[in-house]
Structures are given as C-alpha cells and as structure tokens.
Amino acid sequence: MEYLNKLNKEQRAAAMYTEGPLLILAGAGSGKTSTMTHRIVYMTEEKGIDPYNILAVTFTNKAAKEMKDRVETLIGHGLNSWILTFHSACLRILRSHAEVLGYGRDFAVYDPTDQKTMIKNIIKELGIDAKRYTPSYFLGIISKCKEKPITAEEYTNVYGDDIKAKTVAQVYGMYERALKKNNAMDFDDLLLNTVRLFKKDETVLLKYQNRFRYIMVDEYQDTNRMQYMFIKMLAEAHNNICVVGDDDQCIYQWRGADIRNILEFEKDFKDVKVVKLEQNYRSTSNILGAAHSVISNNRSRKSKKLWTDQDAGNKIVYYRAEDERDEAYFIASEINRMKSSDRKYNDFAILYRTNSQSRTFEEALSRREIPYRVLGGLRYYDRKEIKDITCYLRLVQNKADDLALIRIINEPKRGIGGKTLEKLRTLAAVRQESIFNTLMDREVISSFSSKISSNIESFTELINSYSSEKENLRISDIYDGLLVKSGYLKALEEQNTLEAESRIENLMEFKSVIYNYEDEDPNITLPEFMERIALLAEVDNHDAGENAVVLMTMHSAKGLEFPFVFMPGMEDGLFPGWRAFDREDGLEEERRLCYVGITRAKERLWLTSAERRTLYGKTDYTRESQFLRELDKSLIEGDAIFEKKKRDVGQGVFSDGITEGSSFKPFDQLKYARQQMKKNLEDSSDDLSAGDMVSHPKFGEGKVLSCDGKIVQISFDGDVKKLAVGFAPLKKL
Ligand code: ATP
Ligand code: MG
C-alpha cells in the first residue's frame, strides 16, 4: 500500500473506489492520470482483481505505453491488462470476429492517405468536378456520418435528395463498397464495426463484458459518440466504469468529440460517485493563474478552480517579435540561455497551433545547433517512399489489397501505365476478384508485350513467395527482400539525385523502425507490425528520452508536461484561428486549447507573437491574440500593453536574404547499410544439399533434410520446416 501514500486524500479515495461507476472530474495537472495508474495497481495488488479483467483506454498510443510502463514499474512485473487506445482495442476485437461482419480476419486498415487515394479514384470514375469537390470534402462528410452513424443508403433520407446530397451519397456508397472489396477498414470503421459487432452478435458482446469487468477511460471529455457507445455497451453488464476528464480540456469537438459524454455521465449510469481533485501538482502558481484567467472567459463550463502549494515562480514572458523569424530566433536564444548542465533539451517544448508553423523553428534551431524533433507535419509515414514500401508489405500480408497494388504495380516502372491499369481494374471488377488474382492469369498477362509480362510475372512471384513464407521470415528480411528484389532500391540509386538519396535515407531509417519492433518482440508477425505502424498517431514519435527540443501542436501535447513551454503565434487569426469564428462554440474550443497549452508548463512559460507574419506564402500585419488580452497582466513580466487594432499598414512581401544552409547527410553509413542489405540477401544460399547445417535468425540452427529445387526441408531441433530457397535468410554453417 506504500505506493498509495504518494496520493492525496481525494486521489486515494478514487483509487480505492473500485466497484460501481466513478467520475473523476478535475482540472489540468491535478493527477487524474496518476490516480488512474495507481487505481490499476490497487486493483491488481490489493483487491486481487485479475489484470485480465481490466480495460484501460487512453487517447494516444504514447499515453497507453506510459501508463502501462508506470503500472509495471510500481508492481515490479508485467501485466496482461489491456491498456491501449480505442482504435487498438477495437482492432484487437475485430481481428478475432471480423467474419461476423463479412470481413476476412486479415483485413487491412486504411489511413487518411489511403482514403484520399480511394476518393480520388471515385471522383475520377464518376466524372465529378474535382475543383468543386475535393477528396477532403467527401471524407469529412463520410467521417461525420460514420460517427453518428448514418449509412450511405440513409444519407439522402437524412440530408435531402438534392443533387449535392445525391452525389455525396453516391461517393460514400462507392467508397464503402471499395473498402469491403479490398477487405479493408478505415479508422472510423474500427469503432463503428466493433459497435456493430456487439449489436449483431450477443455472444461476442457477452464475452467481452465478462472479460472487461473493470473499465477505465482517460481524457473522457474527448470521446465521440461511437467511443461512448463502445464503452457503454461493455460496461452495462457490471457498471464498474471509471472515467477521468476535464471539461475545460475538450479540444476535439471539431472531430466529433461530444462534451456531453462527460457532463452527462451521472445520468448515463446510476449511483455515480464523483471525485473532484483541486490541487494542481504540475505548475507554478503564476502559470496556473494565467491558465485560469484565460479559461474563466468561457461561459459553458463547470466552474472550478485549481490551487497549488508551489511558489509563484517566474512571471510569464511575453515577446512581440518583428516577424516569424525574429520570433523563432528569440525562442532559440531563450533555449540557449536557459539550457544548463542540469537541463536537457527535452525539457523544452514549442507548442504551436498549426503544423505549418514548425518550419521557421526548425530553421532557427538548426542554425543555433540546438537538437529538436518535429512531431506531426508531413509524417514520416506519409512520405512517398515509405508509403510505397508499406504497400509492398501490405500486399504480402493481404493480396486482395487492390489499393496497395495500384500504388506499387508500376513502382518501380514495370510498363503498366494508367490506361493499362484501368483495363486491369475493369477486368478484375468484371471477374469479381482482386487485381492481383487477375494478374496471376497467364492469359491476361500474355496480352502484354513479352517484356512487360515478364516484369509482371516477377512481381507476382515476388509477392507470392514472401506471402507464403511470411510466417518463417523476420519482417526485416521481408523488407530487405522486397526493397531489393522489386528493383525499388535500384531505381532510386539509378536516379542519382539528392532527392533520391534522401528517399533512400528514409527507407534505411525505416529499417530502424522495424528493428525496434523486432527488439521489443522477436516473434512479432507481419500483421501485428502493420497494425502498429498503421496506428501510429503523430504524437507517438515523441521519445521523451531523446535529448532534443520538442516541437508539436497543442492538440498533440494533451496529457503531457514539460518544465519549459513556448507558445508562439499568439495572434488573432492564428490563435484563435479565423475558423474559430465560423462555428458556434468555436472560440470557446480555441480557448480550451489555450488552457491545455498553458497548463503543459511546469516551471516557465513564454508567449510570443509576430508583428508581421508570412503564412501560406502571404505576408500580413497581425493583431495580438484575444487570449493575451484576457490574460491577467500582473502575471506577465514587464509592462505588457496589447495592441487592440491591426496596424494600418499595407501588405508587403519581406525577404531577408538568408540563404539555405546545406544539411549534413551521413552518407557513408548509408552506403554501408545498403551494402549490408544486399549482402544478407545473397547469403541466403541457393546451393544447399541434404546434410548441410544451416542457421536461421528466427529458428536457430538446423539440418537440411532435403532440397528440391526451390523448397528446402530443414529440421530445427526436430521441428521440420519447409522454406523457400533464395527467400529464407539461411546461412550455411
Ligand atoms: P492533465 O489534465 O494534463 O491530463 P492530469 O490531471 O492527468 O493532467 P497528471 O499528469 O496525472 O495530471 O499529474 C500531473 C503531475 O502531478 C505529474 O507530474 C504527477 O506526477 C504529479 N502528481 C500527481 N499527483 C501527485 C501527488 N499526490 N503528489 C505529488 N505529485 C503528484
Ligand atoms: Mg492526464
């Protein structure tokens, strides 16, 4: 029970209240997440509750990992509770029961980039004016529909049947059919389908209700309708549900979060115990005061005030820069000034409103040689080469994945142009099979020139061999094989441009991603790996252990804390953003975001703005943010006077003549990695015969029993495996 002594009275009461519904409603930094963590420990260690019966849901993968790590550190051993995100929980459930809904269990998960590609194809097919209707327009509507849920068939009943609504319904319907045909789900489907599954098959629901006797949800204020349904259905049987949240931190309404879920929790469940936490342990009283002075301007909120027994601490620094470069240099030099031997770079975070702000900070920080990490923006996984190679992996996992195939069938060039591909797609549709299957038909292939048909044959052969061997191979070996044998790497090498080099660099970096997963779990399977990377939210790249300044959006910073926080771009139009004024409650949501940003800071906070700013290629004078004007001036260093009016100066374009610096590339290391990759493949020896001793990275040492052309039979400690020569990473001993 010693660990409970670290909690205060209210926190302890909440941690020990395990039966019946519990609502912990409290402000930022009051220890909500810590209480939840200790509650899991209390349940398993003191109450003897089987960890198997516990489900804890968090908002990001990173938060889930942190919570699991902390629980395991406190109890000193591993735990088989499900501590994960909504998406991961649903994905796990669907993997075991997808057939109930007519999917194969190895269904793919499509991310936003895949979704866009699909919609683009549909727009083309229907001949819709692509300038008037963008893919994001349709995807936004489809996502909202899936949150409600409204099906494509129901759409016109709900929204009327004018031409616009009919078009949306048609696109939505085709999109759904294409997903189904590819045996794929998008992110919204994961939740929607799990709820459908629970409704359709009561035994499945009962199974999970029985399993998850204790349910906890962190950041409950940001749950949407489907997440709510999911939790409600699971918890209904036993009512042991604990939700944790802060209505002041609801920042995802634009993505369907429903603040009512937390405000009406007491109505949804009977006899709810409510715990309020009022002491903040994170921030100095100046920081807390600043946060309070801003958020108290929101009208729709449950009034609450946090207190802290920490010192006032330093005042908040406000700096009005000339332009965004000056702003970035100011922040870089403040970091240099504050950085001392007992401070690491990752004690500093720059939290901005939009990803597009990051570039200037990257520039300023790298010039000062300050290490930094950008989270979000063009995600690593959104880069072309990474998308391409993951599509190869996806196809190996699931050959019905037409979308993946379309992306890579001509990458590298195999002579399949747009028209040919179109023909293939139609043919596959007529034959009601996947394009891959169509390509396996010799008759189809023979209609191509001999060069193209041989290209295609080696492509299908490549995918088939890795697909049939996938259980026997490490992911890193599959990866190497695909990259080299597909000719993808070679094609990049032949381009011999700087851009191609950086693409190769990224592809090599992907190997470290794979290695990391393999280190963590040497038996990780391809589907498991694909799931993990498909679910990587932007914030997950944040590695607190790394000694680098952290750059991210305020949205991604939810739940995190840093000693030193910078919030740049405190200008009307940027933060709060102009779009905030389009929507009812838009401004209040932006203000909550401001509250989230400020309360990330433990010791010191800097707010900055720029007098003129170039954004999306346009330079303009700015007005200081409304939130600055709302902030309690006595908490700000110096005499802050905020301009109420935008300066009456015409627009102009400013250039400062700074030339681009050349960036360092670890070229030789890269070359080495590439050579290794090819060498490993050559090592998978072709000339094996019965009696040879071999070693395999996954199965260990074994003895060759027979070798028949392409297939070799090997006994690994009596366990006989059939492996493909030239694909299995075998070393002759
Ligand atoms: P947020 O609303 O931002 O998610 P939270 O309410 O979840 O915040 P935590 O992240 O759990 O708050 O805790 C904030 C900080 O306070 C952490 O550094 C945590 O270790 C510390 N803390 C929590 N409770 C206590 C306590 N009783 N004594 C000392 N420190 C505490
Ligand atoms: Mg928290």
UniProtKB/TrEMBL annotation:
Residue runs in coiled coils: none
GO molecular function: 3'-5' DNA helicase activity; ATP binding; DNA binding; hydrolase activity
Keywords noted in UniProt: ATP-binding, DNA damage, DNA repair, DNA-binding, Helicase, Hydrolase, Isomerase, Nucleotide-binding
GO biological process: recombinational repair; response to radiation
Domain named UvrD-like helicase C-terminal: residues: 285-559
Amino acids binding ATP: A26, G27, A28, G29, S30, G31, K32, T33
Known EC number: 5.6.2.4
A single GO cellular-component term on record: DNA helicase complex
Substrates-to-products reaction catalysed: Couples ATP hydrolysis with the unwinding of duplex DNA by translocating in the 3'-5' direction; ATP + H2O = ADP + phosphate + H(+)
UvrD-like helicase ATP-binding domain span: 5-284
PANTHER family: ATP-DEPENDENT DNA HELICASE SRS2, UVRD / RECB / PCRA DNA HELICASE FAMILY MEMBER
Entry's family note: Belongs to the helicase family. UvrD subfamily.
Entry protein name: ATP-dependent DNA helicase PcrA
